[in-house]
Task: inverse folding
């Protein structure tokens, strides 16, 4: 299980990357893709839509099951990865390269409420 | 404490993702379930199915006992080595389990039953024996392991891995088996591909697994087993039928012998309650999700329900089995409720795939 140091993590297995332009890129962790198995479908959120922290905003389906992807912090969706929706198996190939959507957080400080790599590694192991 | 098969250590060495499957610690995949699926459709894959239970039925009255206990007619088994797929029904006509019955000799049959049903099946068969005053012995063969080798190249790989098995099995037809020393090789499977299901003493299983691996047979987990069987249009107990469902409503009328004069448990109930529903295939015709069991579908003749659904690696679309009103015909369209959205699916006659070929469009 890979947990890159520079990312932040949620309890529901999303990773969050701080981009240079102040937006946050969101995907699901290597642990999550391993548990879910081969990905076959990805439903992305609408650009411009605002979600509360923890709110379900996207869906990924593996051969095995459907899973919600939750908003890591409150904010507005500013970009979605349509290429990934056409090839969801890329999530299995490299979960941390497979960003799903980008958000503009309502409050940049909310990122501090998320787990760092060490905390997430402990969380995922349980 | 989970139960383990003789291949448990071998799965772990291969890096399998293990899951609790009805109390058994079993591999769901060894990396990519979809790659394993394709290996079986295109070449050869192997599955540890040692969690399934073989029950030997031995002694005088074995045939009569099974004539009465199974919905399919064991009188169709006359040549040693013949096998038959059958349901075992309760008195209300519900399906206790589905199984394969092998005929070795007049006083020696073997039933291979689902892992999750094994204890219930044994208890039921014992109670049937008492009620019939029948004499055969029921011997659960926990000492046996089972490896299913499936795919267009499965048989040649088995011959390579097990020298001496080619001559006695080359002419073996589908649903026939051969006993070679301690091994039983049956030309049966749960994937829609050619191949063998091999029963052998547990302590010999790991050596055979390694030999097959060395011959290029890809280890496959329960995940691929499910997508393969669904593409092949084969039912799974607990999803496509159970104790509350008649085999007639579960697409299994072809396995139920109502024509002969033979009486069997559940027959009276089936005669009193004719078929009400039919089991058809569904192919999702638009993107938007994956068909899953329990989803409701709206047809021109009323509501149906998905019993098994998945993403088909061969069709590259979602497929399902669904129980629908009798009037629904293949070629019709239905609206399936997938996570709150209505998606269009086409009704088709299963199987979806057999011997590597797509059979629906």
Result:
């Amino acid at each position: 299980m890979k947990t890159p140091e520079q990312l932040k993590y949620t309890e529901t297995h999303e990773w969050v990357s701080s981009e240079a332009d102040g937006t946050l890129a969101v995907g699901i962790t290597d642990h999550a893709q391993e548990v879910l198995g081969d990905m076959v479908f990805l439903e992305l959120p609408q650009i411009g839509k605002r979600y509360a922290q923890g709110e379900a905003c996207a869906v990924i389906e593996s051969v095995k099951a459907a899973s919600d992807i939750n908003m890591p912090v409150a904010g507005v969706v500013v970009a979605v990865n349509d290429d990934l929706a056409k090839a969801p198996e890329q999530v299995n190939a490299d979960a941390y390269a497979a960003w799903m959507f980008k958000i503009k957080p309502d409050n940049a400080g909310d990122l501090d409420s998320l787990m760092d790599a060490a905390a997430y590694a402990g969380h995922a192991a349980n | 404490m989970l139960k383990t098969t003789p291949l448990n250590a071998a799965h772990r060495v291969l890096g399998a993702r293990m899951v609790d499957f009805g109390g058994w610690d079993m591999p769901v995949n060894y990396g990519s379930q979809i790659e394993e699926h394709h290996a079986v459709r295109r070449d050869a894959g192997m599955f540890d199915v040692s969690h399934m239970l073989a029950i030997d039925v031995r002694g005088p009255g074995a045939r009569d006992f099974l004539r009465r206990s199974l919905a399919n007619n064991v009188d169709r088994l006359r040549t040693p080595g013949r096998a038959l797929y059958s349901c075992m029904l309760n008195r209300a006509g519900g399906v206790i389990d589905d199984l394969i019955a092998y005929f070795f000799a007049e006083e020696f049959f073997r039933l291979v039953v689902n892992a999750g049903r094994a204890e219930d099946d044994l208890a039921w068969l014992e109670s049937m024996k008492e009620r019939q005053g029948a004499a055969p012995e029921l011997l659960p063969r926990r000492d046996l392991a089972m490896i299913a080798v499936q795919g267009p190249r499965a048989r040649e790989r088995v011959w390579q891995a097990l020298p001496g098995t080619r001559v006695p099995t080359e002419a073996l037809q589908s649903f026939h088996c051969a006993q070679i020393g301690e091994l039983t090789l049956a030309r049966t499977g749960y994937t829609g591909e050619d191949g063998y299901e091999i029963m052998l003493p547990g302590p010999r299983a790991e050596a055979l697994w390694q030999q097959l691996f060395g011959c290029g047979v890809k280890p496959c987990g329960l995940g691929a087993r499910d997508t393969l069987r669904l593409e092949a249009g084969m039912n799974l107990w607990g999803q496509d039928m159970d104790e509350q469902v008649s085999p007639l409503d579960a697409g299994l009328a072809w396995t139920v012998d109502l024509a002969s004069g033979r009486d069997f448990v559940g027959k009276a109930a089936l005669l009193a309650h004719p078929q009400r529903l039919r089991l058809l295939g569904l192919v999702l015709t638009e993107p938007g999700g994956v068909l899953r069991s329990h989803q409701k579908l709206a047809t021109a003749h009323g509501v149906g329900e998905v019993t098994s659904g998945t993403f088909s690696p061969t069709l590259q679309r979602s497929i399902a089995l669904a129980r629908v009103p009798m009037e629904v015909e293949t070629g019709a369209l239905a609206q399936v409720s997938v996570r709150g959205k209505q998606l269009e699916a086409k009704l088709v006659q299963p199987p979806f795939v057999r011997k590597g070929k797509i059979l629906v469009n």
Summary: The longest strand of chain B covers residues 95-105. The mean pLDDT of chain B is 97. Chain B has two domains: 1-273, 276-358.
